[in-house]
Structure formats: C-alpha cells, structure tokens
Specification:
Number of helices: 9
CATH superfamily of the largest domain: P-loop containing nucleotide triphosphate hydrolases
Structural class: alpha/beta
Radius of gyration: 20 Å
Order of helices and strands: EHEEHEHEHEHEHEEHHEH
C-alpha cells in the first residue's frame, strides 16, 4: 500500500428526502441504503465503503433530520447528530430547489458549527433548478453561514458531478491505513441488508399511511446447496406493522401486494448475494412498536 494512502470516515447528513441514500449508493456502486421518494427511509447509520487507488472512504449514511414523533424518531435524530462529531469529514446534503435555509437545515448547521469538522456542502437535485441565478443565491446564503471546504452542486439521480465528491473528500482526509478489506463495500450484515431491501420495496409500493409504521426482522438466513449442487439462501423475514388494517394492505388482494414486494426484494437480494434466494415473508401486527424500548434499542448506535 502506498505511503501516501489516505483513509477516513465521512458522515452524510441532511433533512429527510434530500437524496442522501441515492448519493451513497451511487458513490459505492452497490445498494447499501434503501432508496424511495418517501421521507425517513434510513433508520440507522449505515456504513458504506469506497476503495480508491490511494484512499479508502467509509461513508456513514445517517437518518434524515425531521420533527420527532416517537421514541424511534428521537433515536434516529440522536444517531444522525452523533456522527457530526466522530468523523473526519461531513457531507451536508441540501435540496437545490429550496429558496432559503429552512428550520431543519439551520439546526443541522448549528450541529456542524459545534462539531467544527471539515464540511462539504452538497447541493442535490440541480436537474430540477430552472434558473442558474437561483442556485447562486442558495450557495451565497449557505456560504454566509459556514466556511465549507467545497460546495458541489450535483444531480444524484443523473449521476452528475458525483465523482467530484470523492475527489474533494480525498483532499480532506489524513494519511492512514485502510480500515476494511478492499473487497468490502459495507459493514452491514447480510441479515441487515435483507431487512433494508424488503423495507425499501414496501416503502416503494405501499400507500403513504402504511410505510413508516413498518419494521422488518430477518428470522432465518441459511445457505445450502440443492441436490443439483446449486447454491441458494433460504431467507425468512417478518414485516411488522401497527394495525390490522395495515396488515390487509400489505398482504393485498389474494396476497398480490406481498407477492410483489417479495418478488422485487428477491431480485435485488440475488444480485447482492450473487446466488439464488428462496424468500418467504410474513406479516404480523405489533401495535405501537415505534415506542417499544426493546425494538427501538436495535436502532441505537453500538
């Protein structure tokens, strides 16, 4: 390994639905974070790893900042703000279509100022900005609030300027060894990846009143070979929801919705695991789990 090799931890922070998970998946080149057009998709701090010729960058995609309405929400926000202190660089992602600095973004700026970490401002969704003048005004507003190491306008969905992010991060890292094997792209367990993928598909296909009352738990994950020597994972998972009415929506008429969620989740899992997957999903009601200490504890930092 080169003597000039760099490494470090980078936290991605921002309000809900600004595109953090899309950015992290694009940077890594693998799906490690759930991506939907609904808010509060990421619930835990997900680590993703980018290995470059002269650096290893460990990204931490944190839950989006939002107004807490349950113990789970409070835990999510606590997780996000914890990672403004324990990293080498912060990526602060904002929505490029906004005209001013909102209350949530001001709160994040306060935490960044407290942490005094090198911070790069990422202005996402530039493909939706009609006037260049609007972008320049937004940049000016934020630069008056904090001295950023760089300001990078990007379109995560169109992969525009994404490579520049990696270059700017590398400039701001210290020299040091790799923390993970260069073949790895996440430190999530296979069971956690299963839960992320199933939740992503549920968020994508279900009605707005259902998704954020969902909690996925991998009950079984076993690798085996069939009689024909084909490798396969047997995966069993449970979708927990808050109400019986939600359970009916998740299952759908004659099981159609659950089958749809399972089919799309299985395809993603087979691509990620590189082998066939036999996926079985059940749906159970667990009322008010959002305030259940035992469950919420699973989303706290280790």
């Amino acid at each position: 390994m080169s003597e000039k090799f760099k490494s470090g931890f980078v936290s991605i922070i921002g309000r809900t639905n600004v595109g953090k998970s899309t950015i992290i998946n694009t940077l890594v080149g693998e799906k490690v974070a759930a991506v939907t057009n609904k808010v509060q998709t990421t619930r835990t701090a997900i680590r993703a790893i980018v290995n470059r010729e002269n650096s290893q960058i460990i990204f931490i995609d944190t839950p989006g900042i939002h107004k807490p309405k349950s113990k789970l929400s409070e835990t999510m926000i606590e997780t996000a703000f914890t990672f403004t202190h324990d990293v080498d660089v912060i990526l602060f992602v904002i929505d490029g279509t906004s005209k001013e600095i909102g209350r949530g973004d001001f709160k994040i700026l306060e935490k960044i100022k407290e942490a005094k970490r090198k911070t790069i401002l990422i202005i996402n969704k530039i493909d939706m900005i009609k006037e260049k003048e609007d972008l320049l005004k937004l940049i000016d507003l934020y630069q008056k609030e904090y001295k950023f190491e760089a300001v990078i306008p990007v379109s995560a969905i169109k992969k525009e300027n994404i490579e520049i992010i990696l270059e700017e991060i590398e400039k701001n890292l210290k020299y040091g060894p790799a923390y993970y094997d260069i073949e790895e792209y996440t430190d999530q367990t296979s069971r956690q990846l299963v839960e992320e993928v199933i939740r992503e598909k549920a968020l994508k296909f279900l009605d707005d009143e259902v998704p954020h009352g969902l909690y996925i738990e991998t009950e079984k994950m076993k690798f085996r070979k069939t009689k024909e020597k084909q490798e396969i994972y047997d995966v069993e998972a449970t979708i927990y929801c808050l109400r019986n009415s939600h359970k009916g929506i998740i299952i759908g008429k004659n099981g159609s919705m659950l089958k749809k969620i399972g089919t799309y989740a299985r395809k993603d899992l087979e691509n990620m695991l590189g082998t066939k997957v036999n996926l079985k999903i059940w749906v159970k009601v667990k009322e008010d789990w959002l305030n259940n200490d035992k469950i919420v504890k699973k989303f706290k930092l280790n």
